[in-house]
Write a structure and sequence with these properties.
By secondary structure, the protein is of the alpha/beta class. 41% of the residues lie in helices and 20% in strands. The protein contains five helices and seven strands, in the order E-E-E-H-E-H-E-H-E-H-E-H.
Amino acid sequence: MTRPEAGSTPIRVLVVDDEVDFATALATRLQRRGFSAAAAFSGADAVRSVEEGQFDVVLLDLKMPGMDGLATLREVRRVAPQVRVIVLTGHGTVRTGIEGMQIGAEDFLQKPADIETLSTAIIAVVENARGGHGPEATGGGEG
C-alpha cells in the first residue's frame, strides 16, 4: 500500500457518523496512519464541513438521525462534486449501500471495517480519481 498522500500532502478525510465515539476514534486512527482526518457527527455538519474545508474523501455512515446518509451524500455531491465518498453502514443495508453507489459514492463498506481495509479504500478512490490504477491504488502492491 502506498503512503496516504495526494501529491505531497496527506489525504484529507472527513469521518461522518452520529456515533461520536466511533467517529472520533476512527479519525484518530486515520491520523495515526498519516491521513489528515476530522469528524462530523451529523449530515448537516458534514455538508457544512465540506463547504468550508477541503476534503479529498468523506467516510459516510448511512444511518443517522435527521439528514440521513443518502441525503447527506446527495448534498455533498452537489456542493463538492470533486470529493470522493465511501459509504459505511453497520446495519446490513446492502440495498441502501448500492443505492448510495448509484447516486455517487465511490465505494461501500460494511461496519465493522478494519483500518487496513478503510485505508486501502481511501487511497484507492483518491488514486482512481487522479487516474492512477496501479497495484498501489488497489492494495495489490507489496505491503
